[in-house]
UniProtKB/TrEMBL annotation:
Transmembrane segments: none
Name of the protein described by the UniProt record: Cytochrome P450
Organism: Zunongwangia profunda
Entry similarity comment: Belongs to the cytochrome P450 family.
Keywords: Iron, Metal-binding, Oxidoreductase
GO MF entries: heme binding; iron ion binding; monooxygenase activity; oxidoreductase activity, acting on paired donors, with incorporation or reduction of molecular oxygen
Highest taxon of source: Bacteria
Length: 127
């Protein structure tokens, strides 16, 4: 985690994003997989002027951001104003007290035994 925080995050340009937009919409996983292969465990996807999304597959870093230090990470306008129009005001798109309520509601679904039961389904979907 410390190494990720100390180095520059590799960028995927807006042009690359636009060139691949059709296939990203159809199935974003191969595009993200290619960029993880090329850049390592973290990369930034520039999706427009001053707008980017950071993708990370480092479990320790994700745990730090999502659990241990989540109060320091506020969701961007992409999530709170743009994405909310499509997926509603929930865990992915909210901050603060509303986020905490949503997080408590979904917490039981992320118990280790439930995650273990989903492993085969997730692996099949990725392939």
């Amino acid at each position: 985690m410390i190494l990720i925080m100390k180095r520059e995050i590799p960028e995927v340009s807006t042009l690359t994003f636009l060139k691949n937009a059709a296939r990203i919409v159809k199935n974003p996983l191969p595009f993200h997989h290619e960029n993880f292969q090329k850049h390592g465990d973290i990369f930034r996807l520039n999706i427009g002027p001053k707008k980017s999304v950071i993708f990370c597959r480092d479990a320790e870093f994700a745990q730090y951001v999502l659990q241990k230090n989540q109060k320091n990470y506020i969701k961007s306008e992409i999530q709170t104003k743009d994405l909310v129009k499509y997926v509603g005001n929930g865990l992915l798109t909210s901050n603060g007290e509303h986020w905490q309520k949503q997080r408590k509601l979904i917490q039981p679904a992320f118990h280790k035994k439930h995650i273990a039961n989903l492993l085969d389904t997730v692996l099949e979907a990725i392939r």
